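Researcher: Here's my situation. A collaborator sent me these components and asked whether they could plausibly form a single complex. I don't have experimental data yet, so a predicted model of the whole assembly would be a useful starting point for our discussion.
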Amino acid sequence: MSKITAAITAVGAYVPDFVLSNKVLETMVDTNDEWITSRTGIKERRILKDKDKGTSYLAIKAAENLLQKSGTNPAEIDLVLLATVTPDLPVAATAVYVATQIGAVNAFAYDLQAACSSFLYGMSTAAAYIESGRYKKVLVIGADKMSSIIDYTDRATCIIFGDGAGAALFEPNHEGLGLQDEILRSDGIGREFLKIPAGGSLLPPSHETVDNKQHYVFQDGKTVFKYAVSNMADISEQIMQRNNLTNDDVNWLVSHQANKRIIDATSSRMKLDESKVLINIEKYGNTTSATLPLLLNDFEHQFKKGDTLIFASFGGGFTWGSIYLKWAYDKK
Ligand code: UT7
């Protein structure tokens, strides 16, 4: 019997309608379009404005988009993994609610949190379940309502993040397509530089933590930038070397969209032509767990069966990694 590999067989996505442009941000904090564009590559981001909707709304929409596009019966899904740093509630996994709402009535479900690497780690988890032969359909959703944890008076963070969701279905493949190799890493040194200081067991919520704005994202951008550039470039080069891939062999770089300059540094280390580097940061900003599946959905029409995709991510924690995957289908 041929070896089982785990392939992506369908993708879907959703972003809210409301557009927050750099021009509008200029009226909210001391910043300007030129600074944001040249330092990050971001022009606008989407915001989920409805006060009564959380991350589950984004995730459900993305999953429904995938189900509808691919004609998948949700009752056949075995597992729903939701990669997110902004669950609806601290307790009661959002994935469980999402699975029920989309009709995945035979699935089990749980959330997975590794900051901006959540979706990449979720891909690895999904692939392991499929390769073992234990499950046949694993839905990985990356969704974040970043606007719920951003201080819109802090110019260091509010210009960066946006809301969105994307989803990918993993199924067994017998042609050797799908996930080929991965290198996943983490380093606890990162927790001081990118975090939400309060609301967890270390510093539970109190009037004081609210007054001190400790429930919002804090980022020491300069330090995170340095680690992101060196680690993401290193790991992407490593996965190419380990698999004897040259720049000609790689068709697409699917990189976390945190900063255009970080993506450029990674692709230049890989010696990739810019036509192979997928970018949509200008439209959505950094959507944390949603950046990779949003790229897959936006560029799905360009992928050909057998294409070599290199995924790369870096996020809080720190967490980072790279995945080498062979694309499994031509879009009809
Ligand atoms: O997704 C998870 C991982 N996260 C990342 O990978 C993000 C990594 N970090 C970054 O992308 C960048 O560090 C930022 C985009 C956050 C900041 O860019 P930077 O080039 O590192 O800027 P900086 O923090 O060094 O600030 C440069 C200057 C400072 O002024 P002085 O001290 O040189 O006078 C800042 O006060 O720019 C100023 N500044 C701004 N100016 C206009 C900081 N934020 C802004 C702003 N608008 N929004």
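Model: Some features of this prediction you could bring to your collaborator: The first helix runs from residue 22 to 26. The pocket of oxa(dethia)-CoA is lined by residues 31, 35, 39-40, 116, 155-156, 159, 221-222, 224-225, 228, 258-259, 262, 286, 314-316 (CB under 6 Å).
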